[in-house]
Design brief:
The chain is built from 16 helices and 30 strands. It has 671 residues and is an alpha/beta fold.
């Protein structure tokens, strides 16, 4: 009798022992059905053993092996072990979270259309699919050729590259040529994008360039059957290209030969629930395990990535010019709101610039990173403001569906006819969101075709794709949008970008706020002038002399990054130190704070680790729970990890009922 150690999706760190007479080491990675309590569950065999600490009388056997999907390879299990240990989550939860929902179920897998039975298993070392025809879009320019040659020279071993290309520099063209070389060798390429909305256009580019290659698309917006089939295609090696959001990095690939992370700076690559992993960092680890290159592409690298280049861990490859001949980076200028007259929230120079584009038949983009009509509905007679009953936040006014909505918990309420405190019927909307900006532009430019794109107007993927295609065809004059339009999109007729409400991030207490604002503004500015017509960017601000805006005007990311790194070093912030946050929530703030204070004293930290006092979140109450956190820092990553392992075990035993908590390693959000 042999012992299989099985990972199950339960909130404990241990593996569970089961007997299986026919088990051999080759069965590691199998999905198995095992009895657990009163029912059967699906788990994954992580390792085997000759004996168990559980007595033979109590030891249960594996019910059956599920052979309807490829066995999970040792390199995938190595990845799961690392992620579980580093991010302080149970291995079973980590393994289960990496599988599509249907692969965690005892039910038979869905069959493809026209398929009578599941495809037979295929070994990862079987012959790869036949050659892949590559249809290049353009001949690479000199900078692109240098990047392609340098990364290709690293094939066959691990190397990490930062492809730092200005907006419109043709990073995707570099990706295509690298993927072509990988496919020609019979290997697979993994490409990650930060958001679902960016997958359709990149998928279209891939399909046009590789018309004979199977492409597996993976993201949370897919139906279970489609996601399962894509996962199986990747694991079997049938898909030459795997494209997806952060969850795609957890997909097993039979012959991984290249990892690409597009827009690597984007915070969407950090998972914010369950296993709080960074898909960017996991992607680099996957490449290291697979001994293949990792390419991180962006116009505005994260400071962590820039720091890794400075330290020699990553190699910097620059694309300093736009790929389209004659296309230049747009001119960027600030408009001082202290001096310029404002109409409907727009300074006069912005309105004149939009009018000039309308006269020339060119497109304009008005960017405001706030959806809804207005962020606050208030009574000026008694200072009442509509607030969420479940969160310590204001309700946002949405006029399209005549409702007030909380953007933190999703709660909604009807718009009151009068102030609930004093009865005043003259309630005022304060501030602007995309809906109000759209309304103002319609009044100012009644002849213009205005299209608004935010999470309210583009809830369905197909609907968003159709809207983007119509914009690309020139069927819109003025675009109003949030960050959904700030990255990855190429609109040939767009020559003007106007930025509203840029100052709010400058007043944030988050030390990452300036980095994110610069990235957002540089990315949205990059939508302008991507062809022969010159682009222009106008940013409304009350702080035109701020160093961030001066760097933006010069397109000087390197100078901005160096100044930010110097500030972070003097203040003792990442990437110069390593962090973890213990976050907790309960119905009462006193309960939350008491738990965090007890938690801070559970395990004495070593000299290299510092625990800070707990503080409430900025948005303290969310969905009816009172939230607080404490931060742990260390200049030594190993010292921090050693402390977190001991601390996590102690926390499991110390948390009282009614308190929910989690550890966030390398946190990026502190709201």
């Amino acid at each position: 009798m042999k012992i299989a150690r099985v990972a199950l999706d339960v909130p404990v760190a241990t593996l569970f022992d089961y007997s299986f007479d026919e088990l051999s080491p080759a069965h590691v990675g199998e999905r198995v059905v095992v009895p657990f309590g009163a029912r059967q569950r699906v788990g994954v065999v992580i390792e085997t053993a000759a004996r168990s600490e559980v007595s033979a009388a109590r030891l249960k056997g594996i019910a059956r092996v599920l052979d309807d999907a490829p066995r999970l390879a040792p390199d995938w299990i190595e990845l799961m072990r690392f992620l579980a240990a580093y991010y302080q989550r149970p291995l079973g939860e980590t393994v289960a979270g990496a599988l599509p929902p249907r692969l965690r179920s005892i039910k038979p897998l869905p069959r493809r259309r026209g398929e009578e039975a599941p495809l037979p298993r295929k070994r990862a070392d079987e012959a790869p699919p036949p050659g892949h025809r590559f249809v290049p879009n353009h001949q690479p320019n000199a900078a692109q050729q240098r990047a392609i040659a340098r990364i290709s020279a690293a094939s066959g071993g691990f190397a990490a590259f930062l492809l730092h290309g200005v907006t419109g520099s043709g990073k995707t063209e570099v990706y295509l040529h690298l993927i072509a070389a990988v496919l020609a060798r019979g290997s697979q390429a993994l490409a990650l994008v930060p958001e679902i909305s960016l997958t359709p256009q990149l998928e279209a580019r891939f399909r046009a360039a590789f018309p004979e290659t199977r492409i597996a698309v993976l993201h949370s917006g897919l139906q279970d059957s489609a996601r399962t089939h894509s996962w199986i295609d990747a694991a079997r090696g049938d898909a030459g290209i795997v494209l997806g959001t952060r969850l795609a990095v957890l997909t097993p690939l039979a012959r991984l030969g290249l990892v690409i992370v597009d827009e690597e700076h984007d915070p969407s690559f950090k998972q914010q629930e369950g296993l709080r992993y960074s898909a960017r960092d996991a992607a680099v680890l996957r490449a290291k395990i697979a001994r293949c290159p990792a390419v991180l592409g962006t116009a505005t690298p994260s400071l962590e990535t820039w720091h890794n280049c400075r330290a020699g861990r990553y190699e910097l490859l620059a694309l300093p010019e736009r790929a389209v001949p004659g296309a230049k980076l747009p001119s960027v200028a600030t408009v001082d709101l202290r001096a310029a007259p404002v109409e409907h929230g727009f300074a006069k120079p912005l309105l004149e610039a939009i009018q000039a584009r309308l006269a020339r038949g060119e497109q304009s983009l008005v960017f405001i990173n706030r959806r809804g009509y207005a962020p606050v509905l208030a009574c000026e007679a008694c200072d009442w403001a509509a607030g969420c009953e479940r969160c310590s936040a204001k309700l946002v006014l949405h006029t399209a569906d005549r409702a007030l909505r909380c953007h933190h918990c999703g709660a909604g309420a009807p718009i009151p006819r009068a102030c609930p405190v004093c009865g005043n019927v003259d309630l005022r909307a304060h501030g602007r969101g995309t809906q109000r900006v759209e309304e103002s532009l319609a009044a100012l430019f009644p002849q213009a075709r205005i299209v608004r794109i935010d999470r309210d107007s583009a809830r369905r993927r197909a609907e968003l794709s159709r809207t983007l295609e119509s914009i690309h065809r020139g069927e819109a004059d003025i675009l109003v949008g949030t960050q959904l339009l700030a990255k990855g999109h190429d609109f040939p007729g767009l020559t003007l970008v106007c930025v509203l409400n840029a100052d709010s991030a400058l007043l944030s207490t988050d030390y990452r706020a300036a980095e994110r604002l610069f990235a957002t503004l540089a990315q949205v500015a990059g939508r302008a002038g991507r062809r022969e017509e010159a682009g222009e960017v106008l940013v409304q601000t009350r702080y035109p002399g701020h160093p961030l805006f001066r760097a933006l005007e010069r397109h000087d990311y390197a100078g901005f990054a160096e100044s930010q790194l110097a500030e972070r070093k003097s203040a003792g912030f990442p990437p110069w130190v390593h962090e973890a946050a213990l976050r907790a929530e309960a119905r009462k703030l006193d309960t939350t704070m008491a738990f965090l204070r007890r938690a801070a004293a559970l395990v004495p930290p070593p000299a290299a680790v510092r625990i800070y006092d707990p503080v409430p979140h900025v948005i303290t109450r969310r969905a009816g729970f009172e939230r607080a956190q404490l931060v742990v820092q260390s200049a030594s990553r190993p010292a921090l990890q050693e402390f977190l392992r001991a601390w996590s075990e102690a926390l499991q035993a110390a948390a009282p009922k009614g308190v929910r908590w989690h550890l966030d390693v390398d946190p990026i959000e502190f709201d």
